[in-house]
Design brief:
mainly alpha
């Protein structure tokens, strides 16, 4: 039966198959660091890459020019946008 995660703990329980643990331990030894340090450092690098990919928008040159043109020359608000603005103002 799985244990409930304790709210006030810094532990991160994880079961690793022996072959994978041995591979991680070998890599950690090659970098002259502990298994914990190796796993944490590389997990954080992977986490940053995932966050960066999710939070950053990359545009090519054509898309960038299109956005900049919209900012310089915004279209006139249509009926839906005006209605949404009225609803938003009414909420405040």
């Amino acid at each position: 039966m799985p244990r409930a995660a304790a709210e006030n703990t810094n532990r991160f329980p994880m079961q690793i198959p022996p072959a994978e643990k041995a591979r991680l331990m070998r890599a950690a030894a090659l970098e002259r660091t502990s298994l914990k340090e190796f796993v944490l450092r590389n997990a954080l690098v992977a986490a940053e890459a995932v966050i960066e990919k999710a939070e950053r928008i990359s545009l090519d040159e054509e898309q960038t020019r299109f956005i900049l043109d919209l900012m310089d020359n915004p279209p006139q608000p249509n009926a839906k946008l005006k209605a949404a603005a009225r609803l938003l103002a009414a909420r405040k």
